[in-house]
Amino acid sequence: MVEKRVGDMDRDREAVPLTALLPGEWAKVVALGAGGGRQRHLRTMGLREGKIVKIVATQPASGPLVLEVEGTQIAIGRGMARQILIQKL
Amino acid sequence: MKQIALMGCPNVGKSVVFSRLTGVNVISSNYPGTTVDFIKGSTVIGGEKFELIDVPGTYSLEPVSKAEMVAQTMLHEGDIVINVVDATHLERNLYLTLEILETKKPTVIALNMWDETRHLGIDINAANLEALLGVPVVTTCAICGTGIKELASAVSEAVPSRTITPMSEEERWLKVGEIIRDVQVVHHRHHTLWERFADTTMRPTTGIPLAILAILLMFLFIIRIGNAIIGYLMDPLFYTCYGPWIVRAVNTFVPTGLLHDLLLGTSTIESLDFEQSLGILTTGLYVPFGMVLPFIITFYFMLSLFEDSGYLPRLAVLVDTGLHKLGMHGSAIVPTILGCGCNVPGALATRILETEKQRFIAMTLMAITVPCMAQSAMIFAILGRYGMKWILIVYATLLVVYIILGLVLKRIVRGESPELLLEVPPYRRPDARTVLKKTWSRAYGFLAEAVPFVILGILIVNLLFLSGMIRILSRVFAPLLTTVLGLPEGAIAALILGVLRKDIAIGMLLPLGMTPQQLTVSCLILTMYFPCIATFVVLFRELGSRAMLKATGLMILVSLTVGILMRVLLMGI
Description:
The complex is a heterodimer of chains A (about 90) and B (about 575). Chain A is an alpha+beta fold and about 90 residues long. Chain A contains three helices and six strands. Chain A has one domain: Ferrous iron transport protein A (FeoA) (SH3 type barrels, Roll). Chain A is globular, with a radius of gyration of 13 Å. By secondary structure, chain B is α/β, with parallel strands linked by helices. Chain B folds into two domains: about 1-185, P-loop containing nucleotide triphosphate hydrolases (Rossmann fold), CATH 3.40.50.300; about 205-570, no CATH class. Chain B has helices at about 15-20, 65-75, 90-100, 115-120, 125-135, 150-155, 170-185, 195-200, 205-255, 260-265, 285-310, 310-325, 335-340, 345-350, 355-370, 375-385, 390-410, 430-465, 470-485, 490-500, 500-505, 515-530, 535-545, 545-570; strands at about 1-10, 40-45, 50-55, 80-85, 105-110, 120-125, 135-140, 185, 420-425. In chain B, helix 3 links the parallel strand 4 and strand 5. The longest helix of chain B has about 50 residues, at about 205-255. The interface of A and B includes residues 44, 45, 56, 60 and 61 of A. Strand 5 (about 70-75) of chain A pairs antiparallel with strand 9 (about 420-425) of chain B, so a sheet runs across the interface.
């Protein structure tokens, strides 16, 4: 078995939309998506590139999902969540 | 007088710091956005008088909403800044702190929720933070009051930061990272049982049943306790103490004549009648105090518990999917619930919605379909006599209209309906004193507004009857009322009064001797056809004349349509 370096592992795990994450799963934020104003707003709420997030709950019928990042819970619409890219851990 | 601007992110306990510093009666709650209207107070620190301004919570100085725009202006007008920082979320709070320090305003930092950091496993070196930021840092726990004295005395030491200089957004985040590495250590800890339970209130499978249960319990509680207060306190008070006394007193000083009739109406010592006598000192006081106030108090008590526990943002998440279909998003549940108490604060609270479209829909739906607690109390009192069935018909009809009208408005109103983006703060145990204080100030607000208007309303009704105007108006509107809606022509008096206040208007229906079917149709029309004057003024200010005209057209159209439909359904053709 060949040991991979950390960099390789990062490349292996492809970035997927936040909506691909199931409740209870953990992931690392890669990109926040479109719009400078929205990005800044998300960062100041605590959701930043490199942070570890968990899905707390998802609402049915394309409803919002609730994520947790460093002890802060944020409810976010499905459309916005689709633009946020993550790597599953 | 120097101005102190109290600034911080949403949910950092800023409003609690404010009320600790001023001692003034302010409403501070867990829901992001309820302090859009800023609050001022004065405080004396070290012999000098300051004006303290509670600036709306904002995540950064680059505004994304109206409230945050206000925050930015207020920072520039202030002489000194107290920046309240949530010690349990230091990292994301520091971004705003750096932005404030870059403006070179003399600043003091309140490191709030300090008591909570320990059991969350967060270790912060406050002295080190003070050195890095170059301004005084005071640790506080606003809820328990520790550190507030030290914070006040630190105001005189407020200085422009010696270490922080203007930088770009990217540099700012790097700086935040640097500071965090230097001053904070987080120890790992497991989720507590309580936190696990807290999460279940947001999962659809468990959260929705819990929400329905919570709202049902709230309603049952309001009706049961409200009725108990009336039965055991208000009615004995009015019928055995106040009633005989006031009738005797008025009879002594003004035994007969117009003034006597205005004051007591048709009440006599043998037959005390508070509901139908229409005297200023009988019905005029019994309706607001004896029939409505008990429900107002219980409603606002429950609402304050809901707000301060932090449940409302969770409710917003649960109803978001549904409200999206009606052109709004989950946060619109907050103005709607406030509107169940009184439409005026409800309309003001729609400011937490981002776009004109959302606000128009939220305000129009509320004005048409959400009865305020004063109105509900009267509906309970009058329809309740014929059984729960009729009350249920009224509320079920209103709910159906809310949904259908929302579905239609979403399609025909132009504009954007953005998605929900909302911080869900942790549950907190409501503070008994704050809850009682809030209940009292809201109930007082009701009395201050209701009593003068109810008395004015009764005066107008008496004048209408005495001058014979009512006969003319009855004849003019008779075709509409009797033929189209199946109501007695006397109902016109209630409809005229309803523009002033809804509670006394519903009270006016009693002497007409209507069937429960007719009462149900009347209550529905009174709810929908036009808001009371106080709500109208606020809607006009918030919506502007053109949108208000559209909303008014909708009100008349919807109330007539529903009135006719319900007439046909309940009474046949």
